[in-house]
Amino acid sequence: MPVIEYQQFIKAPVELCFDIKRSVDIHTKTTTKTKEIAVDGVTEGLLMIDKFQYKSPFGPIGVLADKLFLEKYMREFIVSRAKALKKIAENMH
To answer: pLDDT 10s per residue in the chain (93 long)?
Structure first.
């Protein structure tokens, strides 16, 4: 079962990021973990870690399709979605 993980730093409040992510996540099932980053006691932002796990249908044919194109497509989708979330959150902050 393929697992895609992507990490990025966002310079915005945790609550804002989760509010935006909730509206973006209507069609995807991802697990997101965050770790607040602080410098000298002042919160600078957070490290967002998206983890997406999926299983291709249709047995061996699905596994082959996954290796040929689906995994690459899903990775690009997760990365572009995360970058869009970062851009929105940092511009709102």
So the answer is: 788 889 888 888 777 777 776 655 545 555 666 666 655 555 677 888 888 888 888 999 989 998 899 999 989 988 998 898 889 888 886
DSSP single-letter state for residue 78? H
Q: Determine the distance from the C-alpha atom of residue 91 to the mean position of all C-alpha atoms in its chain, rounded to a whole number.
A: 18
**DSSP string covering 25-71, please?**
TTS---EEEEEEEEETTEEEEEEEEEEEE---SSHHHHHHHIIIIIH
Please report where in the chains the tokens 């983890």 appear, as a residue.
51
Distance of CA 16 to the CA centre of its chain: 15
- Per the confidence metrics, is the pTM higher than 0.85? no
CA dist., res. 90 & res. 75, Å (int): 23
